[in-house]
Specification:
Order of helices and strands: EHHHHHEHEEHEHEHEH
Cofactor: Mg(2+)
Largest sheet: 7 strands, mixed
Protein name: 2-hydroxy-3-keto-5-methylthiopentenyl-1-phosphate phosphatase
Strand order of the largest sheet: 4-3-2-1-5-6-7
Shape: globular
CATH topology: Rossmann fold
EC number: 3.1.3.87
Function: Dephosphorylates 2-hydroxy-3-keto-5-methylthiopentenyl-1-phosphate (HK-MTPenyl-1-P) yielding 1,2-dihydroxy-3-keto-5-methylthiopentene (DHK-MTPene).
Structural class: alpha/beta
CATH architecture: 3-Layer(aba) Sandwich
Number of strands: 7
Helix content: 40-55%
Radius of gyration: 17 Å
CATH superfamily: HAD superfamily/HAD-like
Family: Belongs to the HAD-like hydrolase superfamily. SerB family. Belongs to the HAD-like hydrolase superfamily. MtnX family.
Strand content: 15-25%
Length: 221
Amino acid sequence: MTKPMIFCDFDGTITNNDNIVKIMEHFGPIEAKQIKEDILAQNISIQEGVKNLFSLLPTSKKEEIIHFVLNSAEIREGFSAFVRYTHENGIPLYIVSGGIDFFLEPVLEPYGPFTKVFCNHASFALETIDIHYPHQCDELCSSQGCGCCKPTIIRKHSSPKHFNILIGDSITDFEAAKIADAVLARDFLIQKCEETGISYTPFETFHDCIEYLDELVGAKS
């Protein structure tokens, strides 16, 4: 019997807003807008785009950015109940995010523990924020520029006995949606799934995700 295993995005999924977009709107110079448009249009890789965005911000803004995110990040309705549901039902829950550790981890801390959190890393050793990518693409990834490569993480941590569920909202989740067994999608990811014929289930709150899991577990029992 296959068992559910969940790979859940952070920005725009666990949070109502995309925190990188919010950070750039608040702290970024005018150049950030074009970089963002190039990422969404897939003119540049996510890895290159995010690195370029944060290189626009001075390291002296670190604490101010953390404070901003902690005060502006809205956790999507039902997330606490969703995490509790995964614990109670023994369902592995991986957080897989193109977000950055220095603001992501403080936001998530009250809601854990999680099976594991994968995200990108920020260095503050230079004059501007330098982004590093510890979770690079493997040879099977068709993108080769994901940053935090979600399909690679899925391949490394799942097996044929698992039913892999991706929960996401944006272009950073698209490559993973191609290989997941099921996709719970919202916002831009819905558009990409419809354009490419990927089957998905829409969601707005994590109560919707719990309902989906209830039906799935019932069907597999």
